[in-house]
Design goal:
With 167 residues, this protein is an alpha+beta fold. The protein has a single domain, classed as Gcn5-related N-acetyltransferase (GNAT) (Aminopeptidase). The chain has 4 helices and 7 strands, in the order βααβββαβαββ. A 7-stranded mixed beta sheet has the order 1-2-3-4-5-7-6. β4, α3 and β5 form a beta-alpha-beta unit. The longest helix has 17 residues. The chain is globular, with a radius of gyration of 15 Å. The relative contact order is 0.18.
Length: 167
């Protein structure tokens, strides 16, 4: 049975191989510039967990996916270029979504879980992450513009509100 729960530090040995598998899947699909140089590191995941924003998706107790679910404000979202956010409502952000390549329906589970907790989600992704862009657009997320990470790297920004399809 699939469940989503808050991650704890003792989950790290199960989370990091999922991160590695997702990184490999991204690179195989042509997204070779995202999640490089060891990102996201164990320290990044620990920081998510310590903020109570690191979550695991389990199937029958086995960790099959990881993501960060963090409340606003997201500092890198304060300025958006070549577009605008749909609204200024309170929002949550999903970052660092990773799963085993043979586990299906993770994005659906995460999205449904998140919308049970908030009315507005914002997500950013690398220009080369066509898999994530497809999933976002397929499920009614609207492309809003470009944001820049603290490192200066560009990301495509998306938003969706719970009660609006935006399609």
């Amino acid at each position: 049975m699939r469940q989503i729960r808050e991650a704890i530090l003792t989950d790290l040995p199960a989370i990091m191989p999922v991160i590695d598998a997702a990184r490999e899947m991204m690179h195989r699909s042509g997204n070779i510039h995202q999640w490089i140089n060891g990102y996201p590191s164990e320290e990044v995941i620990k920081a998510d967990i310590e903020r109570h924003g690191g979550l695991v998706v389990t199937d029958d107790e086995r960790v099959v996916a990881y993501f960060a679910f963090l409340p606003a404000p997201e500092p890198t979202y304060s300025t958006i270029y070549e577009g605008a956010w749909l609204n200024d409502e309170p929002y949550y952000v999903i970052h660092r979504l990773a799963s085993w390549s043979d586990v299906h329906g993770v994005w659906d589970s995460v999205r449904e879980w998140a919308f049970e907790r908030t009315g507005t989600l914002r997500v950013d992704t690398h220009r080369d992450n066509h898999i994530m862009q497809h999933n976002l657009e397929k499920h009614g997320f609207v492309y809003c513009g470009i944001i820049y990470l603290l490192s200066g790297d560009e990301r495509l920004a998306y938003q969706k509100t719970k009660n609006c399809n935006h399609e």
